[in-house]
Amino acid sequence: CSSLAIGTTTGYRLFSLSSVEQLDQVHKSNEIPDVYIVERLFSSSLVVVVSHAKPQQMNVYHFKKGTEICNYSYSSNILSIRLNRQRLVVCLEESIYIHNIKDMKLLKTILDTPPNTTGLCALSINHANSYLAYPGSATSGEIALYDGNTLKTACTIPAHDGPLAALTFNSTGSKLASASEKGTVIRVFSIPGGQKLYEFRRGMKRYVNISSLVFSMDSQFLCASSNTETVHIFKLEHLTDSRPEEPPTWSGYMGKMFQAATNYLPAQVSGMMNQDRAFATVRLNISGQRNICALSTIQKLPRLLVTTSDGHLYIYNLDPQDGGECVLIKKHSLLDSGKLEENKENDLQPPLPQSYAATVARQSTVPSTSTMPGYSEDGGALRGEVIPEHEFATGPVCLDDENEFPPVSI
């Protein structure tokens, strides 16, 4: 949650989210129009782009050097792309492709997945356990959990009665949150076991389409936004265990009795008793627009970020102690703010014609179906285009220098 990538009718833009008052544009590209997918590998120079002009083709760029690393074409339109330092996942309507990100080789194809028209899937950003979650059914809220490292199915989670609408992992990949198309209940499960840990009720009055579901980096909060004007933030309180050393009280005794009683009630009833209301909320001044949220720390304070499809970024203060209504502190326009930093060292210098990335870029202009010119270990080592260890889980490999972003902490 330290940078923002947006696709536009003219290309794509990358912004840094290090300041509240100022929105710094890191990169702007107008080479490919009508970009509807743009995914950046954390704060590195690797960016994956898909456009409406070629919706079946994924282009992978090193944007600081202005080179195309490779491209890859698929049998149908690309609906979503997820990536971490170990894996790159491409989701089509009825299949999923898993690539090894250090050399872009195709490792696994999951065929005949249930129809997934929105490309719903989630990948753990923690490469040590690259779990992948996607709908296991088109008619019910079943989650298929797949281990992207071992390339094996981990488990199936019966999460909701109705079809899924949102999925997200926490930063360590130990929790998975989900919401159904009804949008009334959000559940959190342990990973990889799939046990239900929390259940939050977003509302009962009306069904909504939850478009964004995200954990804070410390996994203490979970944010949900929808096509309504209200954004909900839930707090993942630690489940309190009974402590023998505590003096027995009447309220404590009744609490235990009540908890025991719920075990004998029907699931629909006992589930209702475990609901928690939102810890904090935001009322947007817009409704009906798709938006994406993030919980981040900017200038040492917790913030809620909301990006809307009309091209605006809203930054709110979040009170981590008392919650309540979040206060809007800044609104940015994403379509006319930020200046391209053209004077950074080596950013826009043309690559050497004999460089490996340039060679790959020339090769990749040949139409491809299921073959992909990636950068090999040998080629990368010879031309200095491999990715260093701090940026990827294993293997040589690096995009830029050691200071591009901090090493991964597990």
UniProtKB/TrEMBL annotation:
Protein name: WIPI1 protein
Amino acid composition bias (Polar residues), ranges on this chain: 361-373
Membrane topology annotation: Peripheral membrane protein
Main location: membrane
GO biological process: protein localization to phagophore assembly site; response to stress
Positions of region (Disordered): 361-383
Residues of the signal peptide: none
An MF annotation (GO) of this entry: phosphatidylinositol-3-phosphate binding
Keywords: Autophagy, Lipid-binding, Membrane, Repeat, WD repeat
Gene Ontology, cellular component aspect: phagophore assembly site membrane
Coiled-coil residue spans: none
Sequence similarity: Belongs to the WD repeat PROPPIN family.
